[in-house]
Design goal:
globular, FAD/NAD(P)-binding domain, Fumarate Reductase Iron-sulfur Protein, Chain B, domain 2, five-stranded parallel β-sheet, 486 residues, 4Fe-4S
């Protein structure tokens, strides 16, 4: 145990963010560089090393949180990094992007602010990179078996790294021009600088993983041809079909899916454009959807110089404390102020878009909305609450409905789908097609980055067993496992 009285002697402190007026002028991460290390030992000491650490249940990766908290408290960074990597291939991703269900399940969180698990995690991995404790782990011998991984998001990368280290020859196919999936083009630079992805890719290359960009399976390369080339295939193509908003005026110019808007901004940071083809500069921006993707659109619009930013959410505003229907250790729906919301803009809850209004040139100018409420369990419009707000750029950030089927991947493989439209799989993450496996959002549906990495690791075990007859790779979750929620 780190410090038996740590949780009594120290309050919760989190990473400091840079001043708003400074950070909205650049695309660097919002946190003050180096601000965590001076406080992280004390924060790690707040971990009580519980007899039953519920943080393990909150995290699908099964992270050994009390163990690396203890090492961080003692500033044994090498041991902390080893324990962290024992369950998580990419802690620098999760430490920056995960909403931390582990903290919601922290036993200390029953009656005090939870341990800053995410901050401890990111401190350990950043220190590990700084000190050279993150090194390639090439396999001692090759199996002679080949695996294709379709998709280079967190699930695909995790599966690829696990299988490469098991001795298989792995090639990752990515339809975009760079590796990373939504990590690369869906997550803004101010949330995670892409240098973190780049150095992991270099580590994986050094281990033997091969990468093929600009190749979309189903269009550029037939799925059946891919299956003939490799002994096994892992589909980690994500759930990339955006949920649409079929209301009058949807066809107007200036209304875009979030995943049309955000990637172009990220391509500016990559040097592909001087200015993005879709920009918020000087415009009244409306973001429809109150989740993390919506917040990413808000922060991006601020940095592009929007005249105003309004975020709409159809559900009621959550409370700041757990409600009785979401008791510890479940993951609660709480009112969250992200760094993007700190930077300005307005958030409007319990409203629904009725239609859009444009100018004579077909450009969106106004969004018409109405207040809604639940009546007998049904969402109902409130008469007399209709109004309109200026909207010259609208981004739809209402989630995703499933994996892409228009490219032919599903049909060409002959894959079966489940009742929710996801690719069906068995207990080993295998599809109905022998040798073809699925991991991440393509099989689970839209989910969190920790679930994607856990799925990639678990699917890798299924593939390894299929290729060799047995496997020593870990499988932290089953396909049927779900987050701890009410």
């Amino acid at each position: 145990m780190a410090d038996p009285k740590g949780f009594l002697n120290h309050g919760r402190e989190v990473a400091r963010t840079r001043p708003v007026e400074e950070r909205v002028k650049d695309w660097n991460e919002v946190y003050v560089p180096g601000s965590l290390l001076p406080i992280i030992s004390k924060q790690a000491s707040r971990c009580m090393d519980c007899g039953i650490p519920f943080c393990h249940n909150g995290c699908p990766l099964g992270n050994l949180i009390p163990e690396w908290n203890d090492y961080a408290y003692r500033e044994d960074w090498g041991a902390a990094s080893e324990r962290l990597h024992a369950t998580n291939n990419f802690p620098e991703f999760t430490g920056r992007l995960c909403p931390a269900p582990c903290e919601s399940a922290c036993v200390l969180g029953i009656n005090q602010p939870a341990v800053t698990i995410k901050n401890v995690e990111v401190s350990i991995i950043d220190k590990a990179w700084e000190t050279g404790d993150v090194a390639p782990q090439a396999p001692e011998r090759l199996s002679g078996k080949t695996v294709a991984v379709i998709g280079s998001g967190p699930a695909g990368l995790a599966a690829a790294q696990q299988l490469t280290r098991a001795g298989h020859t792995v090639a990752v196919y990515e339809r975009a021009d760079r590796i990373g999936g939504l990590l690369r083009y869906g997550i803004p630079e101010f949330k995670m600088e892409k240098r973190h992805i780049n150095r992991r890719i270099e580590q994986m290359r050094a281990e033997g993983t091969r990468f093929r960009t600009g190749i979309e399976i189903g269009r550029d390369l037939k799925a059946t041809d891919l299956r003939k080339r490799y002994d096994a295939v892992v589909i980690a193509a994500g759930a990339t079909v955006s949920r649409d908003l079929p209301v009058p005026g949807r066809e107007l110019n200036g209304i875009h899916f979030a995943m049309e808007y955000l990637p172009l901004s990220n391509k500016v940071q990559e040097g592909d454009f001087v200015t993005p083809p879709i920009t918020a500069e000087g415009k009244h921006v409306v973001v429809i959807g109150g989740g993390d993707t919506g917040a990413d659109c808000v922060g991006t619009a601020h940095r592009q110089g929007a005249a105003s930013v309004t975020q709409l959410e159809i559900m009621p505003q959550p409370g700041e404390e757990r409600n009785p229907g979401q008791p510890w250790p479940t993951f609660p729906m709480l009112y969250k102020v992200t760094s993007a919301h700190e930077e300005g803009g307005e958030r409007i809850y319990s409203v629904s878009t009725t239609h859009f209004e444009g100018d004579e040139d077909g450009n969106v100018q106004w969004l018409h909305l109405v207040e809604v409420e639940f009546v007998d369990g049904k969402l109902t419009q409130k008469p007399g609450t209709e109004r309109k707000i200026p909207a010259q750029l609208v981004t739809l950030a209402m989630g995703f409905t499933g994996t892409d089927q228009e490219n032919g991947l599903v049909a060409q493989f002959g894959l079966e789908l489940d009742q929710r439209g996801n690719i069906a799989r068995d207990a080993d993450f295998a599809t109905n097609v022998p040798g073809v496996y699925v991991a991440g959002d393509a099989g689970r549906g839209q989910s969190l980055i920790v679930w994607a990495i856990a799925e990639g690791r678990s699917a890798a075990r299924g593939v390894d067993s299929f290729l060799t007859g047995a496997s020593e790779l870990p499988a932290p979750i089953r396909p049927t496992d779900r987050a701890l929620m009410v």
